[in-house]
UniProtKB/TrEMBL annotation:
Belongs to the amidase family. GatA subfamily. Residues 25-471 form the Amidase domain. Gene3D superfamilies: Amidase signature (AS) domain. It catalyses: L-glutamyl-tRNA(Gln) + L-glutamine + ATP + H2O = L-glutaminyl-tRNA(Gln) + L-glutamate + ADP + phosphate + H(+). HAMAP family: GatA. Allows the formation of correctly charged Gln-tRNA(Gln) through the transamidation of misacylated Glu-tRNA(Gln) in organisms which lack glutaminyl-tRNA synthetase. The reaction takes place in the presence of glutamine and ATP through an activated gamma-phospho-Glu-tRNA(Gln). GO terms for cellular component: glutamyl-tRNA(Gln) amidotransferase complex. The lineage of its organism: Bacteria, Bacillati, Actinomycetota, Actinomycetes, Kitasatosporales. This is Glutamyl-tRNA(Gln) amidotransferase subunit A. The keyword Cell cycle does not apply. Its EC number is 6.3.5.7. One of its GO terms (molecular function) is glutaminyl-tRNA synthase (glutamine-hydrolyzing) activity. Coiled coil: none annotated. Heterotrimer of A, B and C subunits.
Length: 497
């Protein structure tokens, strides 16, 4: 029975559809795994045992009644605690929302339920998705299943750790500056930031609305594609949602052929600050792509070096505005409401008590950057840099089909190492942020272990907006070739918990 947790999502769905195993057995195996390991990992903030078993039972009933099952029917999933779930707590990793039970489902949640995916519960994250290590959660850090004393990345560390610990074969993350891809890289799992606007943000608690993008996470490229297909597509409830067909990511994941593709290596993503073993595995991946028949060229994107400072003006500016809604009147926590204080005083006391220090730092930064007299110098300049970055991408994609780089400059660092050094923490997203600023699509997939610390390294693939299928075509080919070379999937090497 424990072997069920090792199945891919595709294998699980097939086994359920054929009647080789019931959806209830699959759900129970994952709930047992969570019971066995999650005290150590802390990937989940909330486990919905009854809800998961009921959803699984409904799939088994459907099958028994002869109804056709969807491609992910009965497959368990770990949902980042930033999407609203009707009747299930949604905290965003913050004390501010402790005990808040949303009255509605996010569109993404609804699509998962419509696809008969079994939602196991909600995963840990940096508070309001601000961070790169999950240490900013108000509910304690998550451990990296490869080494529990190290970070699983962030902000979606809970979702990535749940995959790597075999607590779920599928997970959902959100990526504002790298929070799907960087956790994927440091846990040896796959994560995709779809094109901005291609997965609905309705019911996704906003951090930085012009950057936030929900997306799929899994242990294989094909599973990630199956989940991508289930959640993407136009939503009239999200005004930034793109009304265009989603490219066929599943067919692309199955192609396993990169012959004739042109691949650009981003020159700027190398040098000081990049760990030797990360660069070694990255360069081997580039060589592998050549061997597989792709044409590889070097590409320069000079404005990418300005992406990090631009992001840390734009994201906090939007956050300072979005987080104004936590005013003690509408949701969650309320402090000091004893009849002696004004509404303003209660708001101030609640925000003081409810927000952690990183969230406060961003609100202060953003409020400053947007204030009159500074707006043009800071926010205005950052928006101009954003345009320059988009132009660099346009120029690059005129000559190549995809770009590649390491996902992160280093492997997973020890918990606590960067906690008091925000600048060091922000550097984790050096390579991922340009795609958020430009709105295009990007994937991270495992490309080996760094020889110096035996920890996973991520390969990043970047595609133009609405060409998400190219990520899967390249990712699927790399994954297949690497698994052939190693004789197994990377996670099979993960030290046992
Ligand atoms: N680490 C980045 C930040 O702290 C990105 C976070 C994210 O993508 N949600 O803002």
């Amino acid at each position: 029975m424990t072997e069920l947790i090792k199945y891919t999502a595709a294998e699980t769905a097939t086994a359920i559809a054929k009647g080789e195993v019931s959806a209830v057995e699959v759900a129970q195996a994952h709930l047992d795994r969570i019971d066995a390991v999650d005290k150590k990992v802390n990937a989940f903030l909330h486990v919905d045992r009854e809800g998961a078993l009921a959803a699984a039972r409904a799939v088994d009933d459907k099958r028994a009644a002869g109804a056709e099952l969807g491609p992910l029917a009965g497959v368990p999933l770990a949902l980042k605690d930033v999407f609203t779930t009707r009747g299930m707590p949604t905290t965003c990793g913050s004390k501010m929302l402790e005990g808040w039970i949303p009255p509605y489902d996010a569109t993404l949640t609804k699509r998962l339920k419509d696809a008969d995916v079994v939602i196991l519960g909600k995963t840990n994250m940096d508070e309001f998705a601000m961070g790169s290590s999950t240490e900013n959660s108000a509910y304690g850090p998550t451990g990296n299943p490869w080494d529990l004393t190290r970070i699983p990345g962030g902000s979606g560390g809970g979702s990535a750790a749940a995959l790597a610990a075999f607590e779920a074969p599928l997970a959902i993350g959100t990526d504002t500056g790298g929070s799907i891809r960087q956790p994927g890289a440091v846990t040896g799992t796959v994560g995709v930031k779809p094109t901005y606007g291609s997965v609905s943000r309705y019911g996704l608690v906003a951090f930085s609305s012009s950057l936030d993008q929900g997306g799929p996470c899994a242990r294989t490229v094909l599973d990630t594609a199956l989940l991508h297909r289930a959640i993407a597509g136009h939503d009239p409830l999200d005004s930034t949602s793109i009304d265009a067909p989603v490219p066929d990511v599943v067919a692309a994941a199955r192609m396993r052929d990169v012959r004739g593709m042109r691949i650009g290596v981003v020159k700027e993503f190398a040098g000081e600050g990049y760990q030797a073993g990360v660069m070694q595995r990255f360069e081997e991946s580039v060589e592998l792509l050549r061997e597989l028949g792709a044409e590889v060229v070097e590409v320069s994107c000079p404005s990418f070096t300005l992406a990090l400072p631009a992001y840390y003006l734009i994201a906090p500016s939007e956050a300072s505005s979005n987080l104004a809604r936590f005013d003690a009147m509408r949701y969650g926590l309320r402090v000091g409401d004893d009849g002696t204080r004004s509404a303003e005083q209660v708001t101030a006391l609640t925000r003081e008590a409810g927000f952690g220090s990183e969230v406060k730092r961003r609100i202060i930064l953003g409020t400053y950057a947007l204030s009159s007299g500074y707006y043009d110098a800071y926010y205005g300049s950052a928006q101009k840099v954003r345009t320059l970055i988009s132009r660099d991408f346009d120029a690059a994609f005129a000559g190549v089909d995809v770009l590649v780089s390491p996902t992160t400059p280093t492997t997973a660092f020890p918990i606590g190492e960067r906690a008091d050094d925000p600048m060091a923490m922000y550097l984790a997203d050096l390579c991922t942020i340009p795609s958020n600023l430009a709105g295009n699509a990007a994937m991270s997939l495992p490309c080996g272990l760094a020889p110096e610390d035996n920890l996973p390294v991520g390969l990043q693939i970047i595609a133009p907006a609405m060409a998400d299928d190219r990520l899967y075509r390249v990712g699927g080919a790399v994954e297949a070739a690497l698994n052939d070379k190693w004789g197994h999937a990377l996670l099979e090497e993960a030290p046992a918990l």
